[in-house]
Each structure stands twice: as C-alpha cells, then as structure tokens.
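G., the chain you wanted modeled:
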Amino acid sequence: MPNSFAAPQRGWSFWWKPALFLLVACVGLYYVKWSPYYLKVFVAAENHSIGASILNDEQSAPLAAALAYAKVYFLAIWKAAVLAVILGSLLQVLIPRDWLLRLFGRAGFASTLRGGLFALPGMMCSCCAAPVAAGMRRQNVSVGAALAFWIGNPVLNPATLVFMGFVLGWGFTALRLVAGIVLVLGVSWVAQRVARPEQLPEAALNAVTAASNVDSEPFLTRWARTLWQLFWNTIPIYVLAVLVLGAARVWLFPHVDGAMANSLLWLVPLAIVGTLFVIPTAAEIPIVQTMMALGMGTAPAVALLMTLPSISLPSLLMLRKDFDTRVLVTVALLTMLIGVISGLIAAALL
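Predicted structure as tokens:
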C-alpha cells in the first residue's frame, strides 16, 4: 500500500509543476513579446521604421540624461523584466533539476546548441534574459548552455531579424543572423572552455536523488524564497547600472557626421560602447537607422547592430554571482571582437 500510494504522488508532482511553468511562460511571452511583435512586423513592413531612436533626446547634463534614459528604458522593458524574474525563479522550483541536467548539463557543444535553441521563443533583451540564465546556473546547467540562452535571446530574436530586414535591408539581416550564430554558439563554447571544470556527475546524482523525494517545504514558500533571492541579486544592481549608463551616454555617443566612416578609429570604440551600453529589445534598429541617416558608415553601424543587443554592463553585473569573472570578461571581449569583425565584413559586402 505505501508503494502504490507514493507512485501517483511522484508522478503528479512531476507533471503539474512543469506544466505550470510552461503555462506561465507561454501566457507571459504571448502578452509581453509574441503578440506585440507580431503587430509591429506590419508597422515595420509599411513604414520601414519601428520608431524613433531611444538616444534622440540629446541630453547634455549627466543627471538629466540618467533620469530621462532610465524613464524611457524601464517603461519599455518593465513587463519583460517582471516576467523574467518570475520565470527565473519558477525554473528553480517547478522544473526537476535532473530534467535540466539531461538537456543542458554537459559541458559540450550539443548542450550549448540546445541552450541557443531554447532562447529563440524568449525574444528578450540581455538584461531580461539574465534572471532566467541565473536560474539555469543555480540548477547546475552548464556554463555554455546558460550563456547561449542568455546571448541568444537578443541576438537571434526572430522578430528583431524581421524588423531589421524591413527597416535596414535584408543584407543586414543575413549578416546579423550568420554573425549572431557565431556569436551565440562560438562565444558560449569558448567561455565554457574558460570556465572551471564543473562537477556534473555529482550534481546529476544529487538531482536524481532529490527528484525521487517529495518536497518537504510548501511550493509557495520555496518559490517566495527563490524569487526574493533572484530579485535581490539581480534587480538593484541592474537599476543602478542603467542610471550610470544613462548619464554616461552624454560622452559615450558622440555627434554623428559624415566623418564617421568605416575606419577602425570609429569601429573599435563603438564596438566597445555597444558591448557595455544597455537598450531594450530591437532598439538597436532605430538607433542605427538614425545614425546612418546622419552619416555613420556601414562598418560602425553593423558593429553597433551586433554589440548593442548582445550583452551589456548591467546584464554582466546581474550575472556576477552565477558565472566566474573570467567567463564574463571573456564573453565581453569576444563580443567586442565579433562586432569589429562584422563591421569590417559589412564594409566590404554591404
């Protein structure tokens, strides 16, 4: 009798929890991402624009620039940020760890590839994807898979690629897609090699053992604790970093004129700035569209198209407790490098 009673309990727990996570993810992403982006595709196709550049206000005072940018930025992303923290916490309490380890646990290319594919429906910016990547790491997902998910969300966003085709041209989309695949999979794989060896067999053994036991703590209690920990470790530093970068944009983005051509003099600094600066999803498109209209060359424009969405200083800081510092520095440097190389290729081809 005890054995026949225990089996249904384990089976019910293993089905309703992942089903609840899937329901929350689908409803949340439909409301925050899928439905709005579907409608925006028609706007992009008709107007060849998806709105004004988020950097258009031309602030000269750092404090005013910080507050103005923070207001515009957070109004654009707050729904996605709330959803990301919810999903990052629910991932840790609703998805059995041994399931995640089977999919993403091995420190190899196949796991990294699955992490990149898992990112495609998310369509989040790097900062909104960061809490979910943090939740993955706290479940012992491999460094490569978690990084591919984090970077893949903004870089391989299908909606952004479509917007880019209608606004900037399909040549830009093709280059972004090819370079984006290299960035997501290549950088994640290299960073995985840089990371310290992970004790996956022990983690997998513990996960399987834990999966066979009924949780002694109520679900809501576990979720509330996990949600608070994830929020406290990611959001305050995120807000502070956005304010700092909002102020720094007074100096980070120089006045664009016809002299900003395809030379390394502009290409390298803008690749660095693009890697560190923070933007909402797809905001790189109107930024680059505006700058090219003012005289920016193709090379620095493509460098910004690659680096602005990929990662940012706030998202790097959000993940400081879940990835080794060497890994995050490697990701940042390689992102800058791919931005520069993509710009040089664009100058020759586009």
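Residues 1-9 have pLDDT under 50 and may be disordered.

Shout if anything looks off.
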